[in-house]
Each structure stands twice: as structure tokens, then as C-alpha cells.
Write a structure and sequence with these properties.
This protein is α/β, with parallel strands linked by helices and about 375 residues long. About 40% of the residues lie in helices and about 15% in strands.
């Protein structure tokens, strides 16, 4: 068996794992989001810990060595802080540690429902803080808890330009200035249209004017970009994180991954909604989507895809080397000279400390418990 560098999962929402095979309602992203809000509404720290632990164990079984958890499920129902205001963050951080996964906890600023002052949905109240300064004080406190811990990075995130007003963007960008900073950007055309109507700028341009784009920043999805947006991200040397299985499942669209790479942006990969946890599928999806969009087959080489799925992803999360994994021989990989084009997560040799039977049973039990509460 050959050893391979462990994958870095650059973008995850662990609680979305409860939606796999369950939420097929809504003809668009926005309809799917309503189902996601339902799951968010019923989680508490104990249930979230169980779900995250089993989800991260599934990642470890898939050869993933580190995860970037885009964390915005902060508070109790109604937006009431827990006694430990970091209870939900601690639930996922401890879950990762218990299965041997490094985690970059991307504590996410989320302040409003949208540009037009629409009322927050009930579930969204769990995501929000009164203002950017309150959020900044909170994440600074959390980061201090884990200073010096090599398995935990606490970074920051802007949920989206619709969820954080322009005046607050610079405050978020200035918080933990040496840590990773991630942001959902231009995932949906409606997001772009609303931003342009409200500010006269694309989301990328709005974030650029606030000083968000640097070499430590990751643009997640980056699906619907203008040529100027691509140049802005490339000139900054920012990371971009594509999540092809989720972007296909949610009908987001196909992002300009090759154009971004050629402009100077560093491309990474994530599992996002965890509809699939398979970095081989994400890497091949990136290449295949580019082929569908361009009509050409040579946009991504295997070497480039390996870097996106491993070293570039690790760097975007503030980690160096993540160790490795081995592949078994299977009918899928038989005859293949380049395993990236043939293997799946099922071909990864299970870490000895992870029992696949326990993972299967625990995911079944905890997801059934979540849906019983809906």
C-alpha cells in the first residue's frame, strides 16, 4: 500500500450532515435553506457534540486530517447565550479532538438577515450577535483558550455580505489579524443582485473596499464572479474554497476555478454541507465541473488537484503537514496509474482508533434523534 498526504477539508458545516438523504424539498438553494434552519433549531450542545463527533469520524475514515468548521450556530434558541457562551463551539472542538482530527474553528460573524432589514427567522437568532464588537470580544476570548494548542486553530469568518453590514466588515477583518479569515461569497446570483442593488458593488468588491482580501483570507464558493472579482482575489493571493458536491446538490453553479488559479488565487476544497464526505469526489468534481463549463479536458492535472486537496487546504486553515493515509486495493483502483482519478473514500484504510461500525450506528442514532425533534 502507498501512503498519501492527508486531506484538508477546507469548509464544513457539521450539523448539515443530518440533512443527508432527508431534505429534498425546495427547488432552489433558498428552499433547501429552510430545511437546514429546521435542524439548526433543535440542536443543543450535547446533541451537536454527538453529531459532530460522528461526522468528523466519518471524515477521518475518508483520509481527512483537518477540517475547517464554519461555525455560526452560537447560541440557544431565541439567541439566548449559554452559560458558557462558547458551549456550541466547544462541542465541535472537543468532537474533533476525540476522533483525532485537527480543527480550524472559524467563528462566524452573523448580524442580520439581509440587505433590506428583513426580520430574522427564528433559527437565525441562534446565529447572531448584537454587533460586531460583541462578536469580536467573544472570538478573541475563545482563541485565548486554545493558544498554543497544535490541534486547534481559532479563526474568524464573515458569514456573507448579506449577514454582515458594510460598516462591520472592517471590524471583523481586524479581529485575530494573524488567523485564517473565511467568507461565503457569490454562491448565488440572488446574493450578487441584492448586494449590487444595495451598495452598487459586487460582494468581492465590497469586501475588498473593507480590506478583507489578503493572503490569509479564503473566499468560499466564489461561484458567480466578474472578471474584476477574479483579478481582485488573484492579486491578493487569497485562497478560494470550492465544494463541488454541495455546489451541484444545491444547484449553485460552476465557479471559475481555473481562471482564479491562473490569476494567482490558491484553490482549496471542502465538503460544505457534507452531502458527501469524500475528498476524491470533491477533487474530481472540481475538474469535471471545469470540463463541463469549458468544453476542455485539461483544466486540472492530478498534481494540481492533490495540492488543492492537501497542502493548499491545510495552509488555508493555519496548519502545516497533516500526516497521511493509505489506500487499499479495490476494483475501483485496479489498473489505475493515478489513484486520484479512480479511488473513493471507501478505499482509505481505516485509522485503527476509528471503528466504522460505531460511526455508522452513531450517525444513524443521532440523526434519528434530531429528526424526532423536528
Amino acid at each position: 500500500m502507498t501512503a498519501f498526504a492527508a486531506f484538508a477539508n477546507g469548509h464544513s458545516h457539521a450539523f448539515h450532515r443530518a440533512l443527508r438523504g432527508r431534505n429534498h424539498h425546495g427547488s432552489t438553494f433558498w428552499g433547501w435553506r429552510d430545511g437546514m434552519y429546521g435542524v439548526a433549531a433543535v440542536l443543543d450542545p450535547d446533541l451537536y457534540h454527538r453529531l459532530a463527533r460522528a461526522t468528523y469520524a466519518e471524515m477521518a475514515l475518508a483520509g481527512i486530517g483537518a477540517v475547517g468548521e464554519f461555525h455560526y450556530l452560537h447560541h440557544a434558541p431565541g439567541g439566548i447565550p449559554y452559560v458558557d457562551r462558547h458551549a456550541m463551539a466547544e462541542a465541535v472542538i472537543s468532537a474533533a479532538g476525540e476522533v483525532g482530527l485537527r480543527i480550524c474553528l472559524l467563528d462566524t460573524c452573523y448580524l442580520r438577515a439581509g440587505f433590506d432589514g428583513e426580520e430574522l427567522a427564528d433559527a437565525q437568532r441562534r446565529f447572531t450577535h448584537p454587533d460586531a464588537e460583541t462578536w469580536a470580544a467573544s472570538v478573541t476570548e475563545l482563541a485565548a483558550r486554545y493558544e498554543g494548542n497544535p490541534a486547534v486553530v481559532v479563526g474568524t469568518a464573515i458569514h456573507s455580505v448579506r449577514a454582515v453590514e458594510e460598516a462591520a466588515l472592517a471590524t471583523v477583518a481586524a479581529t485575530l489579524p494573524e488567523a485564517p479569515l473565511h467568507v461565503h461569497v457569490s454562491e448565488q446570483p440572488a446574493e450578487n443582485a441584492a448586494c449590487i442593488a444595495a451598495t452598487g458593488r459586487t460582494p468581492v468588491r465590497l469586501l475588498a473596499d473593507a480590506g478583507v482580501w489578503t493572503g490569509r483570507t479564503t473566499a468560499v464558493h466564489a461561484t458567480h464572479l466578474t472578471p474584476g472579482d477574479i483579478a481582485t482575489l488573484g492579486d491578493a493571493g487569497s485562497f478560494t474554497c470550492f465544494c463541488p458536491t454541495t455546489e451541484a446538490e444545491l444547484a449553485d453553479g460552476i465557479g471559475p476555478s481555473v481562471a482564479l488559479r491562473e490569476a494567482g488565487a490558491r484553490v482549496t476544497l471542502g465538503s460544505d454541507s457534507n452531502t458527501v464526505i469524500d475528498m476524491f469526489a470533491e477533487a474530481r468534481g472540481l475538474a469535471m465541473h471545469e470540463r463541463l463549463a469549458s468544453g476542455l479536458r485539461q483544466g486540472w492535472s492530478a498534481d494540481q488537484l492533490w495540492r488543492a486537496a492537501t497542502s493548499e487546504g491545510a495552509a488555508s486553515l493555519g496548519f502545516g503537514s497533516l500526516g497521511g493515509f493509505e489506500l487499499t486495493g479495490s476494483v475501483r483502483t485496479a489498473g489505475a496509474s493515478e489513484q486520484l482519478w479512480a479511488a473513493t473514500a471507501a478505499d482509505v484504510v481505516a485509522p485503527p482508533e476509528i471503528d466504522p461500525g460505531w460511526v455508522r450506528a452513531e450517525l444513524t442514532a443521532v440523526i434519528d434523534e434530531i429528526w424526532s425533534r423536528l
